[in-house]
Write a structure and sequence with these properties.
Bound molecules: zinc ion
Number of strands: 5
Largest sheet: 5 strands, antiparallel
Strand content: 25-35%
Length: 71
C-alpha cells in the first residue's frame, strides 16, 4: 500500500473519531448537538473552541467542545 493512502486513511479515521466523540452546547439555548464529520472537518477551530452553528436556534458561535464519554 502506498504511504500516502495510509496517511489519508489515518487522517480520515481521526477526523471521524473526533466528530463522533465531540459535542457542542449552544450558549444561546443550551441545546447540545453533534456535528457531521464534514462540518467538523471544514469548520474553523481554535484549540477546543469551534465556530459552529446551532441546529436549533441557528445561532453561530464559538463553542467549547464537550468531549463525550464513550461508555
Ligand atoms: Zn441554540
Amino acid at each position: 500500500m502506498p504511504v500516502g493512502a495510509g496517511v489519508a486513511r489515518m487522517l480520515a479515521s481521526l477526523v471521524r473519531w473526533h466528530a463522533a466523540t465531540t459535542g457542542y452546547r449552544c450558549p444561546g439555548c443550551g441545546h447540545e448537538f453533534m456535528i457531521s464529520v464534514w462540518a467538523d472537518f471544514v469548520s474553523p477551530h481554535i484549540l477546543t473552541t469551534k465556530d459552529v452553528k446551532c441546529p436549533r436556534c441557528g445561532r453561530r458561535e464559538w463553542m467549547e467542545a464537550l468531549v463525550r464519554e464513550s461508555s
